[in-house]
Amino acid sequence: MSDEKSTEPVQILLTPVELDYTYSAGVSASRFLNAMAEGKLLGQRCPVDGRVYFPTRGSCPQHGVPIEGEPVELADKGTIVTYSINRVPSENIDLELPYAAIQVLLDGADTVLMHVLGETSIDDVHMGMRVEAVWKPREEWDTSVGNIKYFRANGEPDAPFESYKEHI
Amino acid sequence: MSPPASEGETLTAPHQLAYTYKRSLGPVLSRFFTALRDRQILGVRRKDGTTMVPPKEYDPDTGDALDELVPVAEVGVVKSWAWVAEPRKKQPLDHPFAYALIQLDGADTPLLHAVDAGDEGRMKTGMRVRTRWADETVGAITDIACFEPEA
């Protein structure tokens, strides 16, 4: 036993649990992510009511039918439908605190995307605010939504409440 | 960064879910683990004179609070066992071994631990085993690296 060994009583036990998975994205999300690697935002239309799901998904959760049609490419700008101010640091987000976590309705989509707002004061963020994606440098792109660094206000006039009230 | 996968290729990614639990041991288990660091195994004595290893804070039959810790031997007998032919990463040994219920001399209940028998053919219920201590002890059940056949 080394001389440096503690003589204090042992009071704490570390019992880490680690579960190692290999996550398979599946056909539909893989198509979406492969398109992300090329800077394209793909949604897909429900064959029953025409709603555009973003990201693409294999089936419509509302009608229970397969979504098999051609994907729809969406703009990299949209409208903040709701948000919350985050004051707690998070491992995967290197924005300065506080920042706004936002739900963005991309133009042409019927479902919202969760992302973060950068380059914009939290005093200015509001529902209906128009925002655009700020992409990472192209050489850093991967098959990831993280290719979009954050969204920022793009200066367009606010979207009217009527235009997004179904998506809050 | 990996090159973009071609259209239609199904993507996979490693995903680790981890919970970094930290337990406060309390007075009884604190003494058990502190003793392990000193390479000694303690049990707890019940009112009927029997000894439980590992110790519990309360008598499982009567609910009495227990706090009389007594040393037991580092040798004992295998009461039951199961062979692990293909150990996983976090298991106690990196080669085939047995998980066994081992009743140490002086104890009346068995302790679950690993037996490094080398070969399944050497494992027998009733066999005698002895403690192999870890090179460095820190106050954890892994201070007992494993048990090994006595003879």
What is the first-to-last residue Cα distance of chain B?
55 Å
> How many β-strand runs of chain A?
9
Helix-strand makeup class of chain B: mainly beta
Shape descriptor of chain A: globular
Biggest β-sheet: strands ordered side by side in the sheet of chain B: 7-6-5-8-9
Query: Spans of chain B of 5+ residues with little confidence (pLDDT < 50)?
Result: 1-6
Mean pLDDT across all amino acids of chain A: 91
Largest sheet of chain A: 5 strands, antiparallel
Oligomer classification: heterodimer
Number of helices of chain B: 1
Q: Can you tell me the number of structural domains of chain A?
A: 2
Which percent band covers the strand fraction of chain B? 35-45%
Major pleated sheet of chain B? 5 strands, antiparallel
Cα distance, first to last residue of chain A?
63 Å
Count every helix of chain A, treating DSSP H or I runs of 4 or more residues as helices: 1
Chart the SSEs and their pairings.
The complex is a heterodimer of chains A (168) and B (151).
Chain A: E1 12-24, H1 26-36, E2 41-45, E3 52-53, E4 72-74, E5 77-86, E6 99-106, E7 113-117, E8 130-135, E9 148-153
Antiparallel strand pairs in A: 2-3, 2-4, 5-6, 5-8, 6-7, 8-9
Chain B: E1 12-24, H1 26-37, E2 41-45, E3 51-52, E4 69-72, E5 75-84, E6 97-104, E7 111-115, E8 128-133, E9 144-149
Antiparallel strand pairs in B: 2-3, 2-4, 5-6, 5-8, 6-7, 8-9
Search tags:
heterodimer, A: 168 residues, mainly beta, 2 domains, five-stranded antiparallel beta sheet, three-stranded antiparallel beta sheet, 1 helix, 9 strands, 7% helix, 35% strand, B: 151 residues, 8% helix, 39% strand, globular
